[in-house]
Prior knowledge:
Blueprint: H1 2-15, E1 19-20, H2 25-28, E2 33-36, E3 42-46, E4 51-55, E5 61-66, E6 72-73, E7 82-86, E8 91-95, E9 101-106, E10 114-119, E11 124-129, E12 134-139, E13 144-150, E14 160-164, E15 167-171, E16 175-179, E17 185-190, E18 194-200, E19 203-208, E20 211-216, E21 219-225, E22 231-234, E23 238-243, E24 246-251, E25 267-268
Protein name: WG repeat-containing protein
Keywords: Signal
Signal peptide: 1-17
Amino acid sequence: MRILNIFLLFSFFAVSAQQKLPFDSLKLKDTKELLADDYGNIYLYKNKDFSFTKYDSLGKQKGKLLLTLPFKIQSVQNPLSIPTFSENAQELKFFDQNLNEIQKIHFREKFGQIKMVFAEDLQQIWLLDESSKRLLKYNFRDDKIINAYPFDIDFENIIDFLVDQQKVYVLSSKTFTVYDFNERKQKEIPINSGRRIVRENQNILVITQKEILLLENEELNPIFQDENAQIVDKNSASYFVIRDNKLYLYPIQKMPRKKQIPTKNNRGF
């Protein structure tokens, strides 16, 4: 079985038509976060200088942010409105397709210490308030708290979270946990080097340093992995890998899942 799994993994990479994208190593060096939108644009975040840069698929720079404090990019799925949150500044900012600021929301005056933000849409956001141990649904257009739920969990190691279908998905570097709105833990699974949770259509994806996992049938199943990757990401058409300070693209193949995934790494809840 082990030999078969290795063969399937090799077959997956062999048929994926790897393409090297025209990014020089200086652009990719020290990259902490890689994101790709469905228009083929690449976004690189470097915590060394708190910079966030947008490139097209040819490596041409389309926009750049240089901020004074660390911040987290939630998603580039809507490149016209990109949400970023700074826990240090207690601010949520939205940027347009050219990375120009279009809106800023301050939290200090209205809330305690906001640990993490999930922007559900262009008017409602979810907040994890560490000081009051609450999960808040907040309409920032009307400046109104819609719902507040007691949420006394371990806030210290949270890297990302997402709310969907009455469930709260919480990610740390080592665990992926699902809660209901009553703080009840429904599922928990250990992972390696967790980075982001993504909602893609009806699917929940967990992106780690070296693999992309799909939540299905109460399991986290790897749909892409590269043990030599510095960082990975995907859009609707391709997987992206930074390896040895080079950027590679793997078009997503339309073939049976069992031929793409090494099943020995499936993770059950």
